[in-house]
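Predict the 3D structure for this chain.
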Amino acid sequence: MIGELENMGADWYAQRGFTSEMVRRARAWYLQFLPKPGDLLDVGCGRGEFLDAASEANHQVTGVDHDPSMIAAAGHLNIHENHVLDYLQTTSNLYDAITAFHVIEHLEIRDASAFIRLAADRLRPGGRLIIATPNPGSLPTITHEFWRDPTHVRPYDRELIEYLTTTSGLTTESAGVNPESERGLPVNLDDLSLSSVSKSLESRDDESLVSRWVAGRLASSSYAKNLERSLHETTDGLLHTRQELDRIAGLLRRFLEVAYEPSEIYVVAQNC
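Done. Predicted structure below.
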């Protein structure tokens, strides 16, 4: 039985501020992976943003979604109201491409495996299955963004999706992170660069000028040599401090790059 939360799509999108234009831009990046124009099935198509983009690229598009509120928002003529597994089990149609954007995370592993097997059976030779899902390797995604949606069941990483596609007889064509997806970085990585710091510390020219000036002014003073030595030691200390700050900034930058990966991963698998 379909629970009330399962059909919260349109209201949830509106609550989160996900406009159709935002979703369309995010999905348009995947057009590059589609084979030549042919028959395309988008499962969990929602409001039909990718259907519109693919249609403009001359694909013959069909959508499937179980949420009537999303279908109503789509206004598309060629969207079937059905569950993904039920549709794939009953349709006799074959497709050149099947896309599933943010669908698999709503399925338990058994259903996810069944979905991929059924999708593989509905692909023509050379057809492609494209799966995109939230990236569990992204710190903000896995710690809170993923779990904001109460219909999410579990995360799937790229390796698991590739395993499921491979065991269903498909060959991975491409896999990775979507560089167009949000990273949620708490800082601008460029702000971690110390390049804006004066480069005078990298050279002894200024120190030499100061030292010569001091030596000239205080040549007869017993403090001249001590002051020159102090300036030398201070400059060495500042150089060491900058080197350590560079090292720490590099470590922090690396941590942020790893922890704040793009928030979406994908797998493109082909029926060879």
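Residues 189-257 form one domain.
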